Amino acid sequence: MNSLKRVHFFSVILNFVLAAGISVARAQDAPDVGPHPPEPLKAMESHIGNVTGHSRDAKLDYRRYCAGCHGDLGDGNGENAVWLDPKPRDFTMATFKCRSTVTGMLPTDQDLFNTIARGLTNSNMPIWNTFTKQQRADLVAYIKTFSPRWEKEKPADPIKIPTEPPVTIESIAHGKALYTKLECWKCHGPQGKGDGPSAATLTDSKDQPIRPYNFTAGGDDSRFKCGSTNADIYKIFITGVDGTPMPSFADVIQPNDAWDLVHFLRTLQVKRHSKENEVLKAAGGKIPPYNETPSTPPASPNNSAAPASPSENRTAGGGN
Amino acid sequence: MRTSKFGVAVLIATLCPALMFGGTISGKVTYTGTPVKQKPIDMSKEPSCAKQHNPPITTETVVTGSNNTLENVVVYISAGADDANAPAQAVTFTQKGCQYTPHVIALHTGQELQVVNADQTSHNIHPLAKVNREWNKSQPPGSPNIQEKFDQPEFISVKCNIHPWMHGWFAVLKTNHVSISKDDGGFSLPNLPAGKYTVTAWHEDYGTQTQEVTITGNETKAIDFSFKAKAY
Predict the structure, then answer these.
(1) Could you tell me if B39 lies within 8 Å of chain A, comparing CB atoms?
(2) How far is the first Cα of chain A from the last one, in angstroms, to the nearest whole number?
(3) Do A45-152 and A169-282 agree at the fold level?
(4) The domain made up of A169-282 is a member of CATH 1.10.10.10
(5) How far apart are CA A244 and CA A95, in angstroms?
(6) Which residues on chain A are in Cβ contact (under 8 Å) with B139?
(7) What is the complex's ipTM, to 2 decimals?
């Protein structure tokens, strides 16, 4: 009886010593540094030319340069997010504005890589061209850890951009007619000022107000969100700007028509020097009315083999 | 006795082949309380649409019939039925008079969706999918139908950014046993083999409700759903 009691007493002491030892050990291997960025669920890679990016190598860069806005969890809820308009991208949705792929598809690694370096004009996303190629590639891989879509889906092939036809006054005039017919002006406004009848009501996919692009703002320094060459603008018609009201016109526009529209949009940038503005000036500064070819003869002025324009029954602004 | 019962069964089977497939769950969806008054839509910015509606149509967040019936409720078998393949025929979603008709469509995962623009104006079809791919396509007047599919079950809110009042829903489900309540609140889920089912009723503003129903044979089980109207 007595010995039993003694055994029990010793076991209590032993337990106490053990527990104290474990808690000391725990405190040592986990120094308290505040909340940890969660480990990526799965290591991802990116491929930019011959550079391979690794998500694990971007952890510190992401935390230092990106998490403040995009959040540790990549959900766009970083501590600065409340102050920003437009809001930082939520990577968990895997919806991206600047893609070379069709609407709804994931962007290519190169698309994300380009966006990081280019920044996004009219937003708080700066130009990150101070990163090395390797750092950017690693960050692209890191962004891909936030959505399971990157494991399940392959990005589609980039869309094909045909060679740009020469800038002519006819091309500009046709572009203007298309701007009316495709109702670009409903959001972007008749003069491209971003003040069309629907402009004030626009919201992005997270119900945040969003403004259509104002083509007239800015001079030679003007930028577009997803690249500023004519080919970049062409690309936007085809891919759309996902997550925003800007739709894809891939199924409803012919390549030559899209180029004509690009040429016209350049003339809306009134303060910017461009080939298009020179051609317009040479033509007397006025865009002539465009005469739609009658629907019967298939020969079109652009010799585009357009299979009977899909919208022959167009009616200007809501007739019968 | 036995033979006469058999005879009756044969007679019924001959007259009404649908009964051969089993039971039916049917009933009514109603609401209690006072739903928010739907607002008239001002389409003056789109005259070609505005003139098609006299008086102007209202928003369709809550559509009711007489006797407190609730329309546009998606009632479907959420558990118990086999995940059948998508039907071969497409489901059509039409834009007419700057309005989606019908307001809610049900699709099987992988089933073809056909979006029609019957208007004189451009629309953009923008399903705000969160589980499925979010896409956004322009459809000027006279363009061919847009054909799409959704891979994952999801209730997807659909809008047109050009005409912000246009709003609809794609109910993408893993079942073909689905019925959308009409203005009398009625729904019917026929051709159910004997078994235990979970029936879910979904309304865009009032949320979801479920009920367990057991079907034993060629019977019709009546169940009703009642949603509490939101005050705002």
Answers:
(1) no
(2) 105
(3) yes
(4) no
(5) 10
(6) 252
(7) 0.83
